Amino acid sequence: MEIGAKLRRDARAIFKAAVAAANPASMVEATLRNRRDLHRYERIFVTGGGKASGTMARAAEKILGRKITAGCVAVKDGDPAKCRRIELRPCGHPVPDERGVAAAKRIEELCAEAGENDLVLCLLSGGASALLPAPAPPVTLAEKQATTRLLLACGATIHEINAVRKHISLIKGGRLTKLAAPAHILTLALSDVVDDQLDVIGSGPTAPDASTFADALSVLDRYGLRAQVPKAVRDTLVQALDETPKPGDAIFAKTENLIVGSNQKSLEAGAAKAKSLGYKTLILASTIEGETKDVARMHAAIARQLRTAGQPVKAPACIISGGETTVTIRGKGKGGRNQEFALAAAIDIAGLANTLILSGGTDGTDGPTDAAGALCDGETTMRSKTDATDALARNDSYPYFEALGDLIITGATGTNVMDVHVILSGLSR
């Protein structure tokens, strides 16, 4: 088999294995099957949201069945999951919409109904912050939408974005626990954040919040957004009237937060697949953050080191990493952070033989596109009729890779544990 075709086949297989390892259904089912305390609750209410929450809800319903009194979970448009006892409500993402407000309101009602002998099961995955908007008055949905757009475009990390979101919300930052008291709460979370921080996943509706109003304001100042956000948002953060509950608060005495899936587990599965395909494999890190272009170029530098020095491992080699990078949007093109990653890497590995770099989102959607990501090799920039540097400056990576047939199209995967980056260095002929 021609070397380039083999690298493409192998990279896709490694990515597929990494995604499969993050199957939330099996994780939720296993967790609930192993619980010995579920029989003691008079009623069980299911809540939550996220890109994988439909799959998680279906798994919970499979195990709990008629024990579920009622439920409402916010899912992304196009989620194929079906449930009988749990309402699955499609909502806007990444910018929140009225449907998300309605879903959040329904969840508030369920939490208010729960009593001290009941359980509120919260199913969380990446995307829940946008899918469950509950603007804290006087902030309106339109003002929260405007703030979200500014934060998404400025290059802020998910930790920074969620610090702001939590402080203009009625349910984020541990406030859902306050609404559900005195009920018991069990949260099963699929982590889409670096270091698996519970107060950041879905903006931590049932977790103690380490961030403050002052932290939220510092995020706006760091990116020059204080004067740009709507006045109601700015005033809410400055007045700091109702701080989110912090670690050690007594309201969390009956709350249990569990992480059932993470990027690290996916990287381990991807590495195992690479080894089975004959590659000497190294997991670089599951905590990669930073500006997408910069991180991509670092990975390109590793690819060059593999070819020129056989370091850190000799070919055939696979270096796999994960995390979540950010894109500072300066153009009006179409793409996502993983496609931008591949485009930036393509520029830096131009002419490098027997080398391939893939970057893909485990949720199957990269930005506002139908692609999970893209792959590139040493001939990518030469095969394209479009100038790669110009496309990168315009944030226009999707049409660039679409023309080459190098987009990664998986469809919705039903999971979300951040991104996976794969570097392959093959043997020379």
Assign the structural class, choosing from mainly alpha, mainly beta, alpha/beta, alpha+beta, or little secondary structure. Answer: alpha/beta
What is the H/E order? HHEHEEHEHHHHEHHEHEHEHEEHHHEE
Are there runs of 5+ residues with pLDDT below 50, and where? none
The average pLDDT value, as a whole number, equals 96
**Could you name the CATH topology of the largest domain?**
glycerate kinase, domain 1
Overall radius of gyration: 22 Å
What's the main sheet like? 6 strands, parallel
**CATH-level-4 superfamily name of the largest domain:** MOFRL domain
How many beta-strand elements?
12
User: How much of the sequence is in beta strands?
Assistant: 15-25%
N-to-C CA distance: 11 Å
Written overview of the protein:
By secondary structure, this protein is α/β, with parallel strands linked by helices. The chain folds into two domains: 3-19 and 264-425, MOFRL domain (glycerate kinase, domain 1); 24-134 and 169-209 and 244-261, Glycerate kinase, MOFRL-like N-terminal domain (Rossmann fold), CATH 3.40.50. The chain has 16 helices and twelve strands. A six-stranded parallel beta sheet has the order 3-2-1-4-5-6, sandwiched between helices. Helix 7 (158-166) crosses helix 9 (213-222), helix 12 crosses helix 13 and helix 13 (337-348) crosses helix 16. The longest helix is centred in the first third of the chain and has 18 residues, at 3-20. The chain starts with a helix and ends with a strand.
